[in-house]
Amino acid sequence: MNKNELVKKWGSGLLAGTLIIGSLAPIAQPYRASAAEDTIQQVAAAGQGSVSDTMFEDLDGDSVQDSGEQGVAGIKVELHNDQGALVSTATTGADGKYTFANLADGTYYLHVDLSTLPTDQKLYTTQGINGADGNSSYFTISGGNAVTGYHFGFYPQQGAIQSFVYIDTNNNNQKDNNESGVSNVHIALYNESGTKVADATSAGDGGYSFTGVKPGKYYAKADIPANYKYQSSTYFGSDGTTGYFTVANEQTVRNELNLGLSTLDNSAVSGVVNNAATGAGISGVNVELHDVQGTLIQTIQTGGDGSYNFSGLEKGNYYTKVVIPTGYNYASGNGYGSDGNSNYIALTGDNTAGNYSINLQKQANATIAGVLNLPSGLGIDGQNVSLYTADGTLVKTVATDSNGDFRFGSLPEGDYYVKAPIPDGYVFDSSNGFGNDGNSYYVHVESNSYVDSLRLTLAQKVGQIRSTVFNDLNKNGTQEATENGIAGATATLYSASGAVVDTTTTDANGLYKFENITPNNYYVKVTPPTGYNVLANTAFGSDGVSGYIQVQSQQSITNLNASLVLQATPAEVSSAQWIYNKDGLNRVVNNNDTITIANNYYDSYNNPNINVQFFNKDGGVVNTTGYTATFSNPGLVTPIYTNSQLLAFVHSEKTGSTLVTVRDANGNVVRTFTIVVTAADVKATDIVLGATSIKTTVNATGKVSATVQPTTATNKTLAYTSNDTSIITVDANGNWVAKKAGTTTITVKTTDGSNITKTIDVTVTDPNAITDVRWNFNKDGVSRPVNTNGILEIPNTYMNQYNTPHVDLQFYNSAGTLVQPKGYTVSFSDPTIAAADFTNPDLIALVHNEKTGSTNVTIRDAQGNIIRSFTFTVTAGAVSATDLTLGASSIAAKVGDTGKINATVSPTNATNKTLSYTPADTSIITVDANGNWTAKKAGTTTIAVKTTDGSNITKTVNVTVTDPNAIASVKWNFNKDGVSRPVNTNGILEIPNTYLNQYNKPHVDLQFYNSAGALVQPKGYTVSFSDPTIAAADFTDPNLIALVHNEKAGSTNVTIRDAQGNVIRSFTFTVTAETKTIADRVKSADVELVNLRPNTGSTGTNAYIYPHSADVPAGVTYTIETYNTQTGLLFSNITVGTTDGTYHQVLHNTTNPTATWQQTGNTIKVYATYQGVKYLVLQGPSTDYYSSQTTHVWKD
């Protein structure tokens, strides 16, 4: 008898049938056959048996209900007899238990209604019941026994929530890498009805999570800490509560419930400490932050710009204190008092108080004092003396007291100068710190300086006599250029009564002077020195006495020169020369000449010597042995007498001047001259500009600020040159005047030969310059621009808004303000076309006379500058369109085709025949301004063709675009039945999970066809699945797309798009579970004989069986029998293992490996035994299933 056929005998008859294990209900049950009634009746069995078990959450997957594993309620369980008749029904309670009691003896099976399985649980393990169809194996009730061991184990299909509480620093509603988490924040999770289901607390990184969340609607509430406030979130509101959100089966909600906070210690206080005088910030000033109790919280210093900032402050009230530095006083402040304390500052924890400023001024404790007096020391009282800052700003003016003293007190630190008057009747005499113009030098004072050394001494304006006693070589009584003065002569001043008034001696230049002479009548007597006699001339007699002289106030008498002649003429020096200069030149040194050198002068021998050589009248060199030299300023140069051929005067780089008197060995003066030593020139190295650009308006004035560097430069004079004097002029002192609008440059250049040049960019604008001209007051209300070289065209019927033939032009400056065209002129190249009307002061009207033609119009302002030059054209009146004729009212094209719309405007003399072309859908077809079209994609649309002359005539062109490569149909090909099936959008493509194509692959092969029926390769196509666990896309074959299923049952929406992203098909792909016999199911296991399989602990050749849990139920035992192929002798029979129904179970036999499996000549038979029935799984050469060191690849 076939092992798959069962025959059971009941009563007097036989009932034969086939037992099909699996989804078909068992039919072998005890029946009684009655020939009389021709019926089959179920046999009642004696006894009261039961079957019971528990449906539970099998969290550890061991198919045993452990402590803590809850029962699953609501599952419907049916009890059937062996004929399939329903005996009873039970539903699991809250504990997951079901029970069928009081059962008669007999054979039964259970059926679980799979539709009642919980939606929030997944079937995890099974025992005795097939998870695919809900049917159990048969069991027998006999003698009232209790049967158990038929249950399902479930695993909760729960979701999870994983998100963060963090500081959203940049308020962008997302957690960035640099944003830290907030720990210890409590978050509660509530279900839809408001019942709290879970609590969580954020960790150190701000992360929090809820696990084991059952599918459903929830909301969450976060307790925002007191020192934080809400900042951002997708779901959370400012109260810390979210709206409803859904958690699906096995879904993890990640980062969607992020909560961005900001700290309430994120306030800041900022401000600035400024110099009241300059407005610049003062750096390094201590600023303190205090709470309202006065407690010091923090001290910082102002930066280089005087600013300070306290940040990271918590909510509260504060004040700041600026510690006013030594040498400064409070001047003014915004939010600050004179003590440097601010007002109270209320901080919310996230605000910034940033408008606090304090202005400090240098303390005014300095004093500058001085005196105005006479040479006698008497003060000059009642004179106004003024104090100025270094930039020329008047500080104050005071009057000298009776002692001539003046005093400026309470001065701040800075640079000043004093200006004292030189009153009428006085002249500068001497000073300490003053120049002869009454202006002092610059005086720098610190905050507590006391400067009282200034003195200006003035002399009364009286008369004087200043004349010369000279050597009258040619004896003509008049001093010639070559005749030197004679030192040592005595001059006496007598009053008219003969009383001596004053006596003096001539200096090295022969000069004598009587100063401060009270106006009156006087005479002078000259007594010559030894060796000289007086020669009578116009001033003196031979006795050396002059005539009477009237001296007046402020008069200087200089014509009382006395002529002396030598008593004897020694044959001595006739001339002198300054020799040995580096330039090779010898310079004549006459009496009273001046030799000027720089203090870095060296002679040709690189000595700091001024070498003077003396010659007699024959040109011979005079021996200077015994010569002496005397100096009015002995410390300036030193004589060297060692060379008898000359006198050398050595300078020491000291600057100044000295009168040099040279005497021969007899003491006779042979030469008198002055040596002047000046400082060497310091060249300029740079020019510092106060500004590198000037931006100004016409008629504005100013001054270029330029400073020569270094400050010690000898020549600081600069030259200023405007590149365009019509735009800006500049004088020698840098004072500039803006003349007209434009751009140019000013060049600033040194004049000491250093040739340093700087350039200042100049931009001059004219606020009244015309930047825009508009044609206004058109009837259509449109204001039109009038541009230079443009064309202004009107019909000869044109009238403005006021029905006058005027084209009204108005003029605007850059600010958009209307400018009246006062003094403007208009010229026409053809004055017969139009004329200008200036009646309205706000515009110029071009008045046409209906004559057609063109004229060039030039408009100039009052200065003759051209404002606009354009063409003014008057045309004959416009002829409007009356109709529009299309060459074709439709376009039928293919994608990529091009063409042109044929459209004609009537009448033929219409003025404006321009048409506009507007497609309703530019994705289907585009049209340019000339009617040229391009077909873009398949579809239908229209093109509107319209006149543009205001007649508003419109015609429509119907458009149909087809795509020869557009997919017209999709077919499911290569089915084993050879049928090609259409695949339509929104359709359903359904296969069993056992489906294989013609090539025995689990592929659903889809091919694509255009409207011509030609196959189109799906190049660049993409496929997406709503549930990618059901199937995947295979693009290996370029002619099709294969949907590859993995035997998993379920549905997924499939969307296929072309390379441009257009949806080709969208349909439902359903894989159904196909009912298999138990024989087919147990045969689905994979059998492998492997030597040294990695990671399994194998030390030789072992047998492995991999059952597929979707097919193979628990309780199937697999065995392998090994035979000698030639003799048929069985020499090995091993049990590999028994299935438990879990996913990816591995049956591994290590106890009886058969090494000969790798050799030929052996046949194996693999059997599966289930519920007492033995099924042949496979048989064949062992080498077909043998491999070495391979790993298993699961197919489910």
Automatic annotation (TrEMBL):
Its main location: secreted. Pfam families: Big_2, SdrD_B. It is found in: Secreted. The keyword Transferase does not apply. Residues 683-760, 880-957 form the BIG2 domain. One of its GO terms (cellular component) is extracellular region. Keywords: Secreted, Signal. This is BIG2 domain-containing protein.
